[in-house]
Amino acid sequence: MSSLRDRLDQYKAAFESGAPPYHAPREAIETMHRATAELEASGLAQKALKVGDRAPEFSLFNQDHVEVSSGELLRQGPLVVDFFRGHW
Amino acid sequence: MELEALQEVHSEIRALGAQIVAITPELERYTRLVHGKSNLTFDILTDLHLKTAEQFGLIYVLPDYLRELYKGFGVTLDKFNDEPEYRLPMPARYIIDSGGIIRAANVNADYTIRPEPSETVRQLSELQKSK
User: Fold this and answer.
1) CB spacing of B63 vs A38 below 8 angstroms
2) B-chain residues within 8 Å CB-CB of A2?
């Protein structure tokens, strides 16, 4: 099984090549690089919660509209929480 | 891609006595779509208006020029997330212990970089050993 790193790198290379199926224009790729560089330079990622901090509690709806609470999950053991941007 | 990679280690994570949830600002019609398409066995939770991401300190606002580019690609975050402000969470993965304390944290300003799921499994297994 290839690592997630390899899979992401492969996708990125295909996207940034400008070839099909993505046909990403050069200017678009440069714009995306600029935005990432600005976000990195902002230092925001270093201000997020860190090891040793208390995790905020949450209670959110899942894909079947069932409410899921972190308190309920943590009663059963440790929890991996993965934040992602979206399906796009 | 990341969720599918996490799915591949879900049974290992369960065997360690832990669980996974994925959190996104997207509305439920999109989480339902992703969940079904990738055959996930863990939940995707909708963080409406990014309230939870905000508490974790993960929010950034998309610059205007990127907003326009994304709109051109059909990435209309106002519609996907009911979010006119075009705010997004930085990609992040946390391990929280049963006492509610963060034991591993990985936050990336570069969205093309994600932690390896195998590393998350290793960290969980260390955590369970140290109990």
Assistant:
1) yes
2) none
Cβ pair B77, B70 in contact under 8 A: yes
Under DSSP, is residue B112 helix (H, G, I), strand (E, B) or coil? coil
CB count in 10 Å sphere of residue B95? 24
Per-residue CA distances from A28 to A64, A72, B10 (Å): 36, 43, 35
Smallest CA–CA distance from B93 into chain A, residue: A82
- Report the Cα A6 to chain-centroid distance in Å: 16
- State whether residue A36 sits within 8 Å of chain B by CB: yes
**Model pLDDT for residues B48-103, shown as the tens digit of each residue:** 999 999 999 999 998 888 888 888 878 888 888 888 888 999 999 999 999 999 99
Q: Chain A 54-73, CB below 8 Å of chain B: which residues?
A: 54-58, 60-65, 68, 70, 73
Residues paired with residue B43 on neighbouring β-strands, in sequence order = B21
CB atoms within 10 A of CB A67: 10
pLDDT digits (tens, 9 = 90+) for A26-48: 888 888 889 899 999 999 999 99
**Cα–Cα distance between B14 and B34 in angstroms, integer?**
21
Largest Cα span, chain B: 50
- Enter the pTM of the model: 0.91
Report d(CA A85, CA B87) in Å as an integer.
10
Phi then psi for B7, rounded to 5 degrees?
-60, -35
